[in-house]
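[audit] Reproducing an earlier prediction to check determinism. Same input, same settings, fresh worker. If the tokens differ from the archived copy the diff job will pick it up downstream; this log only records the rerun itself.
[audit] input (398 residues):
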Amino acid sequence: MEGRDELSGAVYREVFGCVDDGLVLIDPETGRITDANDAFAGLVGVDRASLVDEPLVSITNNESHAAVAYAVAMVERAAAGEPQSFEWTDLDADGEELELEVRFAPVAVDGADLVLGVIRDVTAGRERERALLRRKERLEEFASVVSHDLRGPLNVIEGELRRHRETGADEHLDAVEAASYHLDRVVTDLLDLARDGQTIAEAEETSLEAVARRAWSLVDGRGATLEVTGDATLRADPGRLTRALENLFRNSVEHGSTGPRSQAREDSVEHGSTSSRAQPDESVEHGSTYTRVQSGDSGGCGDGVVGGARDSPEVEVGPLPDGRGFYVADDGPGIPPGTRERAFDPGFTTDSDGTGLGLAIVHRIFEAHGWSVEVGESESGGARFVVRGVTTGATAEY
């Protein structure tokens, strides 16, 4: 057939033995393999000799019927004289995902019309491409956050120092101190974001309950309570997991002591991104806006009570029923559905004093573990963070 390369058996066998790509010869009439090289056998995890006379579709671990039908169609088109190129996803012998580039072309070997398949493993290369893309995106995020969140406090400091020189009033120095504190928080969070975005080098068997209680001890509970509903053994970096839970707990505590949930929801709609704050350190990124009572209005405790509401938020953590993850929930005002998708974006916050990096750090830590995290609504109407894809050992419910 025109366009079909002619090869002798001796030539193709020499080629089969000296290339790193997987090579396979297919009889288009039967769809069976007539020969393959060691590289192809290694890709599919089957002994080379056992491949001969096997149907091509029987050696794939891709269980998609549509994908298999597509591959068969590509062989048929190649046999008709139209070389085909496409990408294929499969699993290796260990169950790890493979990304493959496949080319089918017509070829004649010792007078027999066959299809030659050239299969290249591009898994590592594609992962490097994705890693470079992630790095590029993170650099862009950093540039955006730095340009916005660092310039703002610097402008405040510059302006207040100028006014202090003009008036001599100490109140301007108080504003400088607050802006400096915020600036320090931004820098610290940026460094944490950079570090926690790295992959986990080594994970170890870690108790969810132990890490949760350790993280809780690092949070200013302000009368809040932590309920651990069960335990699970996780494969995790305990230090970075502690950091993630600490951020989630702090987020829940500082937003759970704002008064009645209905009032908080009304405030988030009526007042946009405004909030009243007692201290510069009372800032988190929760995705919903709120009104905090000034510390002077609540006897100096900084958390206040609105309309007689209790001032003791409750936070709950425990394993998921299916054993494939865990959750953190609170009884605060929650995160409005319209902002949940952006809750983990670096720099996103509706709090004028927040850095917008706390939940971004949480997301990066979980992502570095290979986990996913979603935010929804708890049974009490607060926020509920669900972490999935977690490798767990023994679990226990309390």
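[audit] rerun output stored. Observation attached for the diff report: The first strand starts at residue 5 and ends at 7.
[audit] end
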